[in-house]
Amino acid sequence: MKTLIKGGRIATSNELFYSDILIVDGVIHQIESNISGSFDHVVDAAGKLVLPGGVDVHTHFNLHAGSAVARDDFYTGTAAAACGGTTSIVDHMGFGPSHVNNDILAQLEDMVTKEGISSFKIYMTYDYKVSEADILKVMEALKAIGGLLTIHAENHEIIEYLKHKFISNDSIAPIYHALSRPDFSEGDAVNRMISLAAAVGEAPLYIVHLSSDVGLGHIMRAKKTGKIVYTETCPQYLLLDDERYKQDLDEGLKYILSPPLRSFENNGSLWKGIKEGYIQTVATDHCPFTIAEDKQKGREDFSKCPNGLPGVEERLPLMFSEGVMKGRISLEKMVEVCCSNPAKLFGMYPKKGELVPGSDGDIVIIDPTREVTLTKKLMHSNVDYTAYEGFKLKGYPITTLSRGEVIVKDNEFIGQKGRGEFIKRQRFSHL
Ligand code: URP
Ligand code: ZN
Ligand code: ZN
For residues 384 and 376, what is the distance between their CA atoms, to the nearest angstrom? Predict the structure, then answer.
């Protein structure tokens, strides 16, 4: 099966150039101008941008969050992702009773070396948080076997203290969710993880969903002293702010997620952190709950509301329009943080996240002139809202290919259910 993508402007993490791309049996075979021959399928990309399919390394499909289950499964979630130009995801497990013992530590090795699962997640908060003593053991084990530890970094004791204080005073509206999880609770946890990783001899460390300038400050200081810490942020922390909790109750409930939305000034710091290379990836933490039912559990008490937002579909269009078109980051930087760096850190590169001969034919074609107002009606996630309702975007994905096959055309998912594949990932290696 031969597919030719003709005449587009190719964007990688380090260059922009005009070229054709020939995909043979799902794999990129040739990237050159004016490729001739006979093809099964030709996609005209003249006037369009051709990027590696997005790689979102932080989703929660089917996550059990106690009172509710995240509404996307692996079909609806990946179909929504594809409609937004994302062709690979790394799903994170939820939180549940957890402990660390020698048997579990030994199993990690098989997961990395035999099963192709090279990253693991620890929550420092929520019920069932993992203790620092156990985090050190996991860090040591993963360092030895080439695994990456990803951390939800918030100080549990600060959060619990504030949460109970607010609730006992009947301060139960969504704004108190944000106030109970202050930026310094993230800062403290980030700093602590950097110290634990140092104690283990610079164990590979990846902070998920960084939300605050305080947390970023700790990361910047650590990196300036030669420490290695990889950091992810998400569109919600770049583009939404805590004013949203002050609107009506249903509106506030939509944005109950952890860490919470921060101030507008924090948004700006994180954009700067991306631009200056302190933040390596933009993922989504996609974790959708409905407003009509799931989020209503927080009506009488913010702490009862399932935490999370949808976003797997919106990420790439937002980063293109709000990031590249508004001049906050270059197109190459967008490809780096949304495609190539995530693929590298999570052991999928250059099969995913890159456009070179030998990479999978996972490609998103963006029409930079298409104007779209984001609204729930356009979205494909199995949930009843988008957190970005009304955002006016310039540029939008028009075609998505996965392993050389067009799976999205003009915002319609046309891929076959079940054609997705588990990606066996390589051991962690540094950027
Ligand atoms: O609020 C969030 N982020 N929910 C999903 C689970 C997590 O913390 O990553
Ligand atoms: Zn988290
Ligand atoms: Zn998460």
Answer: 7
**Among residues of the chain, what percentage have pLDDT more than 70?**
100
Q: Are strands 2-11 and 412-413 parallel, antiparallel or unpaired?
A: unpaired
pLDDT confidence of residue 206 = 98
Residue with the nearest Cα to atom 4 of ligand 1? 308
222 sits in which H/E element: helix 213-224
What pLDDT is stored for residue 60 in this prediction? 98
Predicted confidence at residue 183, as pLDDT, reads 98
Closest approach atom of ligand 1 to CA 287: 5
Residue nearest to atom 8 of ligand 1 (CA): 258
Average pLDDT, the chain: 97
Q: Which domains does the chain have, with CATH numbers?
A: 2-51+359-413 (2.30.40.10), 68-345 (3.20.20.140)
* Ligand 1 binding site (Cβ under 6 Å of any ligand atom): 60, 152, 257-258, 285, 287, 307-308
pLDDT for 97 beyond 90: no
